[in-house]
Amino acid sequence: MKEKRGKNRLRRWGRVLIVLAILALVICIVKAKAGGTDADQVLTIADQGFEGHYYW
Hints:
By secondary structure, the protein is an alpha+beta fold. The protein is built from one helix and two strands; from the N terminus they run αββ. It has one domain (2-55). A two-stranded antiparallel sheet has the order 1-2.
């Protein structure tokens, strides 16, 4: 009986760790997308169907 409880406890903690890892990954992705660039100014040049961005 104790062995079964121990396995259930390990499975539960395993699930908790997986959920926490996914949550941390989502937070990192959201922060990366919201961060943008560290550039002070952005110059966009569009000519003849091409578009370029110069960051400084």
